[in-house]
Every structure is written in structure tokens, then in C-alpha cells.
Design a protein that fits this description.
rod-shaped; five-stranded mixed β-sheet; nucleotide-binding; transferase; about 400 residues; 11 helices; alpha+beta
């Protein structure tokens, strides 16, 4: 997924912003401390440098910030003089709290905790304010509380910003995943519609062409055969129009009822192919399964296999069709190879894709003088039951 706030080199706008803030801090705070002393002004400039490189180099920021703190610890008399300049530590801890790496965030917490603890001890034991012990402890606690507020507040603000960005990124990731899922679904629908269109058009026009040629030859010699051929053409055209209307309705409305030819359509398909003059030797084993997916897949595979036999096979020899419903669906279509045709191979590829979508396989090849189509589609209910049983056995072991 694309990341909006990826860690990398800062942009030119970010660098200009950081340098501007650092320059403003050095100018405004530097003017205040220039009258106090040059050493104090040096601490201000070191903090300004840390602010300038906070996005450019994290180690350099930490090093400069630590150097400024060490200088202040080394001069106990500056404890209350630089409290205005110490506001810069909030910006530095903000960077640590907003960092995407957990190790850096933990480092910021530890560094802030250690620094505040050292400040408390340092203020209590080393800074001589000339006051009583109680007043010294109170002063040390007040200064330490301010330090905790500055450092901890900066870290918490940065961490909240990081969480907000992650929340936005998570929402964008969900939107992107939804978009990709919809795009994938649309692509699957396009592929399914394209396969259906190919099967319908290829089958219907193959039947119409065969019947038209037969009717033309038998027009005068056998009027009855001509009439039968025209009836087949008309019935094929009506069936094709109905299928195309259903597909077009699916394209216009995703909630429309999908075209799912079943077992009755497969029977009419066999009758229609016999009327073209194709001799079909059919063998069926078992009862047809109740799965609509298997019914649709079986119909499309049988339709494409018989259409290829009609277009490219030798109709002088019978076409052998074997369908086995005992375990899922198995199809075997064997026809004699005729004269080489001008097929593109899209039909065979479409059959393989249909079988793969249903979790099965299909092979289409020439064996000697015959063309053999072998397909095996598993029963989805039985496959689900087998998966559940395998899961139970794995859990028990």
C-alpha cells in the first residue's frame, strides 16, 4: 500500500520550515541572552542548531541537544537563567515521540526520564541557592516539574501525531484494499462475461452454419430435412438471444440474476447437436450433482467441446461423450480429427480457465487421429467436508 508519511529525506519545504524556526529561535532568544552572557548565547545557538537539523539528521539533533544539556549541568548558576531557551527541548522530544520506529520512541522516553531525574538530583545537591533545605527541595521539584512538562509534553504531542497519522494511513489502506478488491471483482466479471460470450456465440454460430449448409444442399432434394434445419436455426437463435439478454442485464445491473444454465439446458444442447447430423454416443454414470457451479461448468465445457467437434472434427465418425457424476463431475469427449481449421485456441483456453476456477483441471490434446478432452471438477460440498475433516484430524493430533 502507498504510504503518505514515509521516512526519507525531508522535502525542501520541510527544511525551509525547520531552518526558519531555528533562525527565529536563535534571533529572538539570542537577543534576550546576549545581554546575559556569551556562554548562555552559545547554548541558545546549540539548541537552535538542534532544531535546524531535527528532520535532516536524528543523531545530530540528539548530539546537539545532549551537548546543550551537559553545558547547562556543568554550570549550576544557569539553572534558572536559561528556562526560556529550554522550551526548545519540547521540539526535540516531539521529533522523538513522533518517530515511526519504536526504538527511537523508547529512547526519547528513557532520555527524558534520565534527564529529569538527573536534573532533580542536580538541583537538590549541587545548586546552592542560599535557601533552606526545604526551599531548595521545593525549588528543585518545581524546576523538574517544568522540565517534565516540556520534555514529556513534547514527546506525548509527537506520539499523538504519530497515532493520528497511523489512523489516517490505516483508513487509506482499507480504502485501497476495498478498491483493489472491487477492481479484482470487476476483472473477474469481465473475464466471466467474455468467456460466456465466446461460448454462446461460438456454439450458436457453429450450429447455425452447419444447419445452413445442410439446408442449402437439401433444399430441393429433401424439403423435410430443410425444414428441420431451419427449425434448429430458429431455436438456436432464440436461445442465443435469451442468453445474450441475460449477460447484458448482468452488465447493466450487478444485482441482476446471473445466467446459470443447468442440466435441462445440457439435455437440449445434446439434442440440438444431434440435429446438426452429429452422431453422439453418450455414456452417463451417477446422478447429476445439485451444485449450480458444477452445473454451469459442466454445461459450458460440454458445449465448447461439442462445438469444437462440430467445427473441426470428422462428423463421419461418432463423437463419444462420457459424463461421470459419482464424485464431482468428470467429462471425456472424443471425436475424430477432421481437416485443419482456422481456430484461435481461445475456446480451449477458456475451458481450462473455467475448470481451474471451479477447482478442477482440463486437458485437451490430439491422440493419434482423435481429439480428446478430459475434465475433472471436484464436488465443492465434498471438498469443504474433506477440508473440515482434515482440520479436525490436525487439531486432534
Amino acid at each position: 500500500m502507498p504510504q503518505i508519511w514515509e521516512q526519507g529525506r525531508p522535502t525542501r519545504r520541510q527544511l525551509i520550515f525547520d531552518l526558519s524556526c531555528a533562525a527565529a529561535f536563535a534571533l529572538l532568544i539570542g537577543i534576550v541572552y546576549a545581554h546575559v552572557g556569551l556562554a548562555q548565547l552559545g547554548v541558545v545557538l546549540v539548541l537552535a542548531g538542534a532544531m535546524a537539523v531535527r528532520r535532516l539528521s536524528l543523531p545530530a539533533m540528539v548530539l546537539l541537544g545532549t551537548a546543550a544539556a551537559v553545558i547547562q549541568f556543568a554550570h549550576p548558576g544557569w539553572s534558572l537563567q536559561l528556562f526560556v531557551a529550554d522550551v526548545a527541548y519540547a521540539a526535540l522530544f516531539f521529533v522523538l515521540g513522533a518517530h515511526p520506529r519504536a526504538a527511537v520512541r523508547r529512547f526519547g522516553l528513557v532520555a527524558g526520564g534520565v534527564g529529569c531525574a538527573c536534573l532533580l538530583v542536580w538541583m537538590t545537591t549541587l545548586v546552592d541557592t542560599g535557601s533552606s533545605t526545604r526551599a531548595r527541595v521545593f525549588s528543585a521539584g518545581a524546576v523538574t516539574a517544568m522540565a517534565v512538562l516540556v520534555c514529556g509534553g513534547g514527546w506525548v504531542a509527537g506520539f499523538l501525531r504519530l497515532q493520528r497519522r497511523r489512523s489516517i494511513q490505516s483508513e487509506l489502506d482499507r480504502v485501497e484494499q476495498r478498491r483493489l478488491a472491487e477492481s479484482y471483482e470487476h476483472e473477474l466479471q469481465r473475464s466471466r462475461v467474455a468467456a460466456d460470450m465466446h461460448d454462446i456465440v461460438a456454439h450458436s454460430w457453429a450450429v447455425v452454419a452447419a444447419q445452413a449448409d445442410g439446408a442449402r444442399y437439401a433444399l430441393r432434394a429433401d424439403p423435410d430435412a430443410t425444414e428441420q434445419a431451419l427449425e434448429v436455426i430458429a431455436e438456436t437463435a432464440r436461445s442465443t438471444i435469451a442468453d445474450l439478454r441475460t449477460i447484458l442485464a448482468e452488465l447493466r445491473d450487478n444485482d441482476a440474476e446471473q445466467s446459470t444454465p443447468g442440466y435441462e439446458q445440457a439435455e437440449r444442447l445434446m439434442q440440438r447437436m444431434r440435429l446438426t447430423g452429429m452422431r453422439i454416443q453418450e455414456r452417463r454414470t451417477g446422478d447429476a450433482a445439485g451444485s449450480s457451479l458444477i452445473a454451469l461448468t459442466a454445461y459450458r465445457l460440454l458445449s465448447e467441446a461439442l462445438t469444437n467437434a462440430l467445427k473441426h472434427g470428422d462428423l463421419g465418425q461418432p463423437v463419444q461423450v462420457e459424463q461421470d457424476w459419482t464424485s464431482g463431475y468428470r467429462l471425456r469427449v472424443v471425436n475424430a480429427v477432421g481437416a485443419p481449421g482456422d481456430g484461435t485456441g481461445h475456446g480451449i483456453i477458456g475451458m481450462m480457465e473455467r475448470a481451474a476456477i471451479s477447482g478442477g483441471r482440463l486437458e485437451s490434446r490430439q491422440v493419434g487421429g482423435e481429439w480428446v478432452v478430459d475434465a475433472a471438477i471436484p464436488d465443492p460440498q465434498r471438498s469443504a467436508a474433506d477440508s473440515t475433516q482434515d482440520a479436525k484430524e490436525s487439531a486432534s493430533t
